[in-house]
């Protein structure tokens, strides 16, 4: 697995915001319409942050970033997992993306965003 480079990230972020159009996007690395996004909250002792991952289900390139927990509410299908299992999954990107791809294929992703 490789990360998207800075130019590829700029291409991905140049389109509509994911919260406005949560479907798959064209991958700037391989061209497949297979770039998916997943967002979750991490509650810390001092603040809560929002973590976002974008990955290509075809070529497996990815990028993740952390930001303030601001903006619309959203559903998180991984919250159904026991906390310990979820924590393990979030530490292993290959397993995380495989699980998220399965949720995408099952129709549990993309996430839904509200106000």
Could you explain the architecture of this structure?
The chain is of the alpha+beta class and 115 residues long. The chain has helices at residues 6-13, 83-90, 93-106, and strands at 25-26, 33-43, 48-56, 62-68. A four-stranded antiparallel β-sheet has the order 1-2-3-4, with no helix packed on it. A hairpin with a 4-residue loop joins strand 2 (33-43) and strand 3 (48-56). The longest helix is centred in the C-terminal third of the chain and has 14 residues, at 93-106. The model has no long low-confidence stretch (mean pLDDT 93).
Please provide a brief summary of the model.
With 115 residues, the protein is of the alpha+beta class. The chain is 26% helix and 25% strand. Strand 1 and strand 2 form a beta hairpin.
Write out key terms for the chains shown.
26% helix; 3 helices; globular; single chain; alpha+beta; 115 residues
